[in-house]
Amino acid sequence: MSNFDGKVNQVILSTDKDRKFEKNVVIVSDKKEFEILLYMLEGNVYFDESSKSAEIKRWKQEISDINKIKLSFLDKSKILLALGKIYPEENDLNKRETLSIEDLHKTNQEDIMVSKVLSEQTGKISKYVGSPTHTQEIVLDHINSEHVEAILLTEMCRQAAIATVVSEFTNDSQFYISEEFKKYEHLVQRDKEVIIQTFLVHGKGGMIICLFSLFQNDSRCVLGYFLGIQRKER
């Protein structure tokens, strides 16, 4: 169980609902979500093994190797909820990598809305940051001064998803999206950056689901996923 002893991540897994407002504490609903979180974070978590969180100790003992945890497309709703419980650290956003137009299949660098965050915290989760209005590609005939339009947020999340797929394959491959889902939870302000976290699950025959969560000002604003197939260009 040595792969449960990592100290890179500050996330604490607990079932004690009295701790739900504590920073970095994730309240785990059941064993399946516990497995998902362990897999996402590559075991780099702390465990609340107090008397109010006895299930955590038991679940930990029942899992011998996190690398043997298997996730399925059938679990996508549960995986998405688990991903949404992991709030990004905003103090590690300085190390950024500019994404290329080749990676995102663009012709204008000004239309790339996100940069990859080089973070030690996130395990299998990728992190991106960007301005929700930084694009010349999308022209709106009406701009709401109080919040960002959904079409801009969708494009940001789509770019983050493509970049995540490319990071595992090559930029000569395409991610063909066949299904998408988004749930908007809070309005996004125009003048502040957002953070997007992504997580991939692989299926059969090149099928991939990229789940994402979008945050601003310590609020979770959007949850969703893109499901599709990855194929090399001919």
Task: Report what the structure shows.
- It is a single chain.
- 22% of the residues lie in helices and 27% in strands.
- The chain contains five helices and ten strands, in the order ββαβααβαββαββββ.
- The model is unreliable at 1-9 (pLDDT under 50).
- This is A-factor biosynthesis hotdog domain-containing protein.
- Residues 105-179 form the A-factor biosynthesis hotdog domain.
Indicate the topology.
Elements: E1 12-14, E2 25-27, H1 31-40, E3 46-47, H2 54-62, H3 76-84, E4 96-98, H4 101-104, E5 115-117, E6 126-130, H5 150-168, E7 173-184, E8 194-202, E9 207-216, E10 219-232
Parallel strand pairs: 1-2, 1-3
Antiparallel strand pairs: 4-5, 5-6, 6-8, 7-10, 8-9, 9-10
Helix pairs in contact: 1-3
Text of the CATH class of the largest domain: Alpha Beta
**Alpha plus pi helix count:** 5
Quickly give the CATH architecture of the largest domain.
Answer: Roll
Fourth-level CATH superfamily of the largest domain: Hotdog Thioesterase
Total E-strand runs:
10
Identify low-pLDDT runs: 1-9
Question: Structural class from helices and strands?
Answer: alpha+beta
The domain tally reads: 2
Q: Whole-number average pLDDT?
A: 89
What general outline do the C-alpha atoms trace?
Answer: globular
